[in-house]
Amino acid sequence: MSIVIKNLxxxxxxxxxxxxxxxxDVTFTINDGDYFGIIGHxxxxxxxxxxxxxxxxxxxxxxxxxxxxxxxxKYDYKKLRSEVGMVFQYPEYQLFDETVESDVxxxxxxxxxxxxxxxxxxxxxxxxxxxxxxxIKNRSPFELSGGQxxxxxxxxxxxxxxxxxxxxxxxxxxxxxxxxxxxxLTLKIKEQGPTIIMISHNMDEIAAYCNxxxxxxxxxxxxxxxxxxxxxxxxxxxxxxLALPTPALIxxxxxxxGVSVTASDMDGLVQAVLSAKGGNYA
Length: 282
Known about the structure:
Blueprint: E1 3-12, E2 20-30, E3 35-39, H1 46-53, E4 61-66, E5 69-70, H2 77-83, E6 84-87, H3 100-110, H4 115-128, H5 133-136, H6 146-158, E7 164-168, H7 176-190, E8 195-199, H8 203-209, E9 212-217, E10 220-225, H9 227-232, H10 235-239, H11 246-256, H12 266-276
Parallel strand pairs: 3-8, 3-9, 6-7, 7-8
Antiparallel strand pairs: 1-2, 1-4, 4-5, 9-10
Helix pairs in contact: 3-4, 3-6, 4-6, 11-12
């Protein structure tokens, strides 16, 4: 199933001196199984958009259908929020319970599951995020390292087994090693089946992990692209004042010097350079 967004418009403080259009007639589809990126400057409408997907912001104009749930009609909020898991920026700040297991169990317990099912889901989710269930289950989440806390917060969302996982700047505040570990973990999670939607200001992450990318500018949709389409034609990125991913930036500098190459990732860059020079990439 998919997420279909049509003519979505959202206005903050309508009919007041503080009125602001956050989203303006946005239409696109997120396909089942996508690793879907959403990019744009602060204020472009990214957070407003994803907050609609699990009912944090009420739909006022346009239509959204999430895996068969029409957000324009009366719907079950609990069902929607079990379908769409949200992991906010710095999710470790959402931790609250006395032990890791009880914190991860909170969502499944609210779903009305049996205690055996709740325990099974908590153990499964904790193991999925790369933590040792037996060693960590009875520890306070606030005694863990920052990276472990982030994994526990992610496990709490995964324990609800959402069909859509929304990640808002998932690597914010992490060192390079921690960033790669979290992003590689999302690929492992994706093997379990959910569609993943990621907001990030890091174009290298977006280019390396996403198969489709929506670009927002001042509340309007600039388009939906593959990484090669978007970063191969740098005009949109430059016009919106966004950074190119490193391989695309190198490719642009090479084009400026007369070497005809286009790439959005490092493997593609190597292949393009070798092809331009008449070499082979094995």
